[in-house]
Every structure is written in C-alpha cells, then in structure tokens.
Design goal:
The chain is an alpha/beta fold. The chain folds into two domains: about 260 residues, 3-Layer(aba) Sandwich (Rossmann fold), CATH 3.40.50.720; about 100 residues, Rhodanese-like domain (Oxidized Rhodanese, domain 1), CATH 3.40.250.10. The protein contains 16 helices and 13 strands. Strand 5 and strand 6 form a beta hairpin. The radius of gyration is 23 Å and the shape is globular. The model has no long low-confidence stretch (mean pLDDT about 90).
C-alpha cells in the first residue's frame, strides 16, 4: 500500500484513470534496470525515480567527465572524476526516499549480464556501442525480459520495445530482428566521435521511460513492433513497423552456456590486437627522433589541430581506400580524439591488410593535450 506521503507525492498520477492507485502500486512494486548512466540513462533514471518505480538498478563502470555535462543532466562540475553509478544513485536517493536504488558499478559482460538483468522486470538500454546492445538484447531474450531500446545519432533518435510478450502470448521483435548483423565499425561512430545535440538524449531517454511506465501499468499501446524515429532538426516523428524475424532470433545464443561463450566484441568487429602507447611514451619517442609515422584518423577539420602530431591524415571512413599511404617499415602511431576510432582503424588495418606495426595512442588527442598542458605548469 502507498503511505500518506506517497499518496501526496504521486497525486498527479493518481488522478489519471489509466494509472490511479492500482497503477501507482504496480510502479512501486516494479524493478527496472538502466544500463548506462550517461546521456540516455540520466533522464531515464530521473523520471523513473520521480514516477515512483520501487527498485531501480544502475549499471555503469565509467566516471564523470567534463564533456558529459553538455547532456548528462544528473551530474555537475563537482562530480567530475566520480563514479557515474554511485553519483547517480546518491542523487536519486535524495530525490525520492521511497525508491530503492541499486548500484552495479561494473562493465556489463556476458560473464555478469544474466545475473544482473535477472534481478529486474524490465531493462532500459542506454548504451552507446553495438557489442553491448547485442549482449543486452540476447540476455533479455534468454531471460524473457522486455527491453526498452533507445539510441541517438547527432540530431536523430530511435525508441522501441523489444522482446515484449503481449496478452495473447505473441512475442515482439528483438534487436537482432532490426539489426541482424552489426555495421562495420568505421560506419558506426558514437557521440564522442561525431557529436550529439545536448537535448536529444533527454528527449529519447524520457520516451524510454514513458514506454517503461506503460509496460508496468499495462497502458496500451506500447512501441512493440514499431520503431519511433525522431529528427530534432526537422522536428518530425515517424513510426516504422518492424517484424519478428525468427531466423535472426536464432543467430543469438540460445541458452546460458552459449551466451557465456559468445564473443560480442569479435562479433561486432571491435577486437584489435594492437599495441598501445601513452602520450608520455610518444613524446619521448618523438624527442628521441625515432622513425615514426603519425596517422590522424579524425574527420577533416576536426579540432584541435596538434602541430607536433601533424603527419598524415586519413579519416576512419576512408581508411580502407588509402592503405598505400601507411608505412609498413616503421612504427605507425594511430590517433583520434579519444582513442576509440584509432582502435577501430587499427583493427581494420590488422585484420584486413596485414599491418603489424601499429600503435594506438591511449586517450588520443585529449590525453596528449593534458600532458602538454601539465608540462607547461
């Protein structure tokens, strides 16, 4: 039952016939897991907590960075360097003492996903990479849990509900039905590589919570079998029908044993055996005048330009067409803004073109800039 204070807090819900006392009690009894406490996870966590969802789990192993503050509304400048999951949990507990917030400050993997997701009724996908999305989808299918999916790309967002079983026992599509195969890594950058409108994750994350509340309370109609597309530039909403593809579903691990053995990074082409180098080590190599080639795989005119690293420039999307420019007789240092795209580029060059002399600059240009700024002080 709801306490007197809870009745006062959730008054506007109780006034809605579609929710009312019964629906609010369902929200109190519900257990929802938010995977990723970033751009999508921040608004999702805020509104789940405000709505009175009884148990909220947070999965995130990252720490708050200053670049997050443009869109990840749970955090402020005083949180930089702190655990996202722990920081988010503290703020949610202060927001609503009637909600139980559980922290999973770990990287989700096939070794822990089934155990964690199994504790909850619904999973909300707030991740930003394909290997984790496939992993979360497959875990939810094995555990028969609905998955509320959202994604953002520059000015566009998507929302749908996967793996939902309706009152007639009919199952909705899964993530693999929409994306049977992952895209090539060089064609699927995330927001840290190409940017995103700050408000967009807030809109998409809020829509994910809307679908979650409807799932919990039984309000129809949910976005099951339909993909909602939002374009912030044109301010348009479109809905596409998607269908369950049993052939695509069968490509996923069928049980816990298969799931534990499945290599999601390899499946999504993000595995690299490349060597790495720190900014300090690279600076020493340059000072020692070692024979090096510096390969910038950022987009044309991407800032900041670093004079000390100005050698050859091949954007990631064009890397396959310009391998002849890349040296094979010396160490090649591959870098981008943060070290993500460069790792993908190295994977492509190693796996498809036989390069074995590549080094990934850890932290990319941002780490190099921090080093040089530190040495000035």
């Amino acid at each position: 039952m709801l306490s007197k204070d809870e009745i006062a807090r959730y008054n506007r819900h109780l006034l809605l016939p579609e929710i009312g006392m019964e629906g609010q009690q369902k929200l109190k009894q519900a257990k929802v897991l938010v995977i990723g406490a970033g751009g999508l996870g921040s608004p999702a966590l805020n509104y789940l907590c405000a709505a009175g969802v009884g148990k909220i789990g947070i999965v995130d192993f990252d720490v708050v960075d200053i670049s997050n503050l443009q869109r990840q509304i749970l955090y402020n400048i005083n949180d930089i360097g702190k655990s996202k999951a722990e920081t988010a949990a503290e703020k949610l507990r202060n927001q609503n003492p009637f909600v139980d917030v559980i922290v999973h400050a770990v990287k989700l993997s096939n070794q822990n996903a089934l155990e964690i997701i199994n504790e909850y009724d619904i999973a909300i996908d707030g991740t930003d990479n394909f290997s984790t999305r496939y992993l979360v989808n497959d875990a939810c299918v094995i555990l028969n849990k609905p998955l509320v999916y959202g994604s953002v790309y520059r000015f566009e967002g998507q929302v749908t509900v996967f793996n939902h079983t309706d009152k007639n026992g009919i199952k909705s599509p899964t993530y693999r039905c929409l994306f049977p195969k992952p895209p090539a890594p060089e064609t699927a950058p995330n927001c840290s590589q190409i940017g995103v409108l700050g408000i967009l994750p807030g809109i998409i994350g809020s829509l994910q919570v809307c679908e979650t509340i409807k799932l919990i309370t039984g309000i129809e109609k949910i976005l099951s079998g339909h993909l909602l597309l939002f374009n912030a530039l044109n301010m348009t909403f479109d809905t596409l029908q998607i269908f369950r593809d049993e052939d695509a579903v069968k490509t996923a691990p069928h049980n816990c044993e298969e799931f534990l053995k499945f290599n999601y990074d390899f499946f999504c082409g993000s595995v690299s055996t490349s060597k790495t180098i720190t900014a300090t080590e690279l600076k020493n190599w340059i000072n020692e005048k070692q024979p090096l080639q510096l390969l910038d795989v950022r987009e044309k005119d991407e800032q900041p330009e670093i004079e000390a690293l100005n050698d050859i420039h091949i954007p990631l999307a064009a890397i396959k067409a310009h391998t002849g420019m890349i040296a094979r007789d010396k160490k090649v240092i591959v870098f981008c803004q943060s070290g993500i795209r460069s790792k993908i580029a190295i994977g492509i060059l190693e796996n498809n073109f036989g390069f074995n002399n590549l080094y990934n600059l850890e932290g990319g240009v941002m780490e190099w800039m921090q080093l040089t700024e530190f040495q000035k002080t």
